[in-house]
Automatic annotation (TrEMBL):
<comment type="similarity">
    <text>Belongs to the class-II pyridoxal-phosphate-dependent aminotransferase family. Histidinol-phosphate aminotransferase subfamily.</text>
</comment>
<keyword id="KW-0663">Pyridoxal phosphate</keyword>
<protein>
    <recommendedName>
        <fullName>Histidinol-phosphate aminotransferase</fullName>
        <ecNumber>2.6.1.9</ecNumber>
    </recommendedName>
</protein>
<keyword id="KW-0032">Aminotransferase</keyword>
<feature type="modified residue" description="N6-(pyridoxal phosphate)lysine">
    <location>
        <position position="227"/>
    </location>
</feature>
<comment type="subunit">
    <text>Homodimer.</text>
</comment>
<dbReference type="InterPro" id="IPR015424">
    <property type="entry name" value="PyrdxlP-dep_Trfase"/>
</dbReference>
<dbReference type="InterPro" id="IPR005861">
    <property type="entry name" value="HisP_aminotrans"/>
</dbReference>
<dbReference type="GO" id="GO:0000105">
    <property type="term" value="P:L-histidine biosynthetic process"/>
</dbReference>
<dbReference type="InterPro" id="IPR004839">
    <property type="entry name" value="Aminotransferase_I/II_large"/>
</dbReference>
<dbReference type="GO" id="GO:0030170">
    <property type="term" value="F:pyridoxal phosphate binding"/>
</dbReference>
<keyword id="KW-0028">Amino-acid biosynthesis</keyword>
<dbReference type="GO" id="GO:0004400">
    <property type="term" value="F:histidinol-phosphate transaminase activity"/>
</dbReference>
<keyword id="KW-0808">Transferase</keyword>
<dbReference type="InterPro" id="IPR050106">
    <property type="entry name" value="HistidinolP_aminotransfase"/>
</dbReference>
<keyword id="KW-0368">Histidine biosynthesis</keyword>
<comment type="pathway">
    <text>Amino-acid biosynthesis; L-histidine biosynthesis; L-histidine from 5-phospho-alpha-D-ribose 1-diphosphate: step 7/9.</text>
</comment>
Length: 367
């Protein structure tokens, strides 16, 4: 039976999301018995803080009950945490779900989606799933070119994704650049600021998109518990937008889209953020150390406002990611992002970062 033949025509060539290789998979595939360092998915190298794990454990006895369907209490806590009205918050099964829901709620067959390239690989996927025209705007010097993105807007544009800081380059766009982009923009275009790495960004001129929402009701800001809060495994993210946009998202989401444990963990993560945020400083120090080490080896490494670095080797395409995997270190090969030969490396524990740099030095010297 050729099920592909039965598929909706525009879905036949969808290229599914390829995640960073899980630790168990590398062990199985290569019979690797040593310790494996996964630096491939921009995860937090540390587990959630003790209090969050306790909140998760406390929830287990209630798993016979469905979760709160609209994540009411987590929305209320987020609203207080961020200083906005609860009606402006929507919680999703990861911020990824919200990207998907935006497309489902708003994209017609003749609409266009504008986004930067290379950037988060889910934007082209949702455009493919909706069967609509994707307008990819190339980065300049590894940075989003917001002026070119504005020029790429046509009467058919419905959603613009602005990944800030950008995955996989780690670079950011400034408040001034964002102001210029929004100035005079049609108000029926939804501008989604994907801020998955927001908490790691410390640049003084990083835009405050929640503040901008007051004057631009067509903005939606996406954030997540997956990165700084160490909850990638639970799938919980959120957005801040106009309350009417929140209503539209609720209309297209599944019932109980965010599980009980994720909601409880998210609430505890906010209560104990003071403890978690101490990790931001370590990330910054380690990131600069890894960056300096890679630059020393001749790599081009854009300055990063995140917990990862893009490393472009001096001599072009090679097989460094494979060689690293043979030595138990998983990084992300950048070929699917149009950057053949480059890699994206997440910041791990100090020991993992040291091991990565030491291995890189050995690999480069023996080339
Ligand atoms: C830019 C960007 N947006 C969104 C996501 C999805 O995050 P979540 O785990 O909240 O779905 C990621 C995950 O890596 C990301 O890099």
């Amino acid at each position: 039976m050729d099920f592909k033949k039965l598929m909706r025509p525009h879905l036949k060539n969808v290229r599914p999301y390829v995640p960073g290789k899980p630790i168990e998979e590398l062990r199985r595939e290569r019979n690797f018995t040593g310790e494996i360092a996964k630096l491939a998915s921009n995860e937090n190298p540390y587990p959630p803080v003790r209090e969050v794990i306790d909140a998760i454990t406390a929830e287990l006895g209630q798993l016979n009950r469905y979760p709160n369907s609209g994540s009411y209490y987590l929305c209320a806590d987020l609203a207080e945490f961020l200083g906005v009205e609860p009606g402006r918050i929507f919680v999703g099964n990861g911020s990824n779900e919200i990207i998907d829901l935006l497309a489902r709620a708003f994209i017609n067959p003749t609409d266009e989606i504008v986004y930067p390239f290379p950037s988060f690989i889910v934007y082209p996927i949702v455009a493919q799933l909706m069967g609509v025209k994707a307008v990819e705007v190339p980065l300049v010097d590894y940075r989003l070119d917001l002026a070119a993105m504005k020029t790429a807007i046509t009467p058919r544009t419905k959603i613009v994704f602005i990944c800030n800081p950008n995955n996989p380059t780690g670079t950011y766009v400034t408040k001034d650049e964002v102001d210029r982009f929004l100035d005079g923009l049609r108000s029926d275009i939804i501008v989604a600021f994907d801020e998955a790495y927001y908490e790691f960004a410390d640049a003084a001129d990083f835009p405050d998109t929640i503040e901008l929402l007051k004057s631009h009701p067509n903005i939606i800001t996406l954030r997540t518990f997956s990165k700084i809060h160490s909850l990638s495994g639970l799938r919980v993210g959120y957005s801040i937008s106009h309350p009417d946009l929140v209503t539209c998202l609720h209309m297209v989401r599944q019932p109980f889209n965010v599980n009980r444990i994720a909601q409880a963990a998210g609430r505890a993560a906010l209560r104990h953020f003071d403890k978690t945020k101490e990790r931001i400083g370590e990330n910054r120090a380690q990131l600069e150390k890894v960056r300096a080490g890679l630059v020393d080896l001749g790599f081009e490494v854009p300055p990063s406002q995140t917990n990862f670095l893009l490393a472009v080797p001096p001599e072009g395409p090679g097989n460094l990611t494979e060689e690293l995997m043979n030595r138990g270190i998983i990084v992300r090969d950048m070929s699917p992002f149009g950057l053949a030969g480059a890699m994206r490396v997440s910041i791990g524990t100090p020991a993992e970062n040291e091991r990565f740099l030491k291995t890189m030095r050995e690999l480069i010297r023996t080339r």
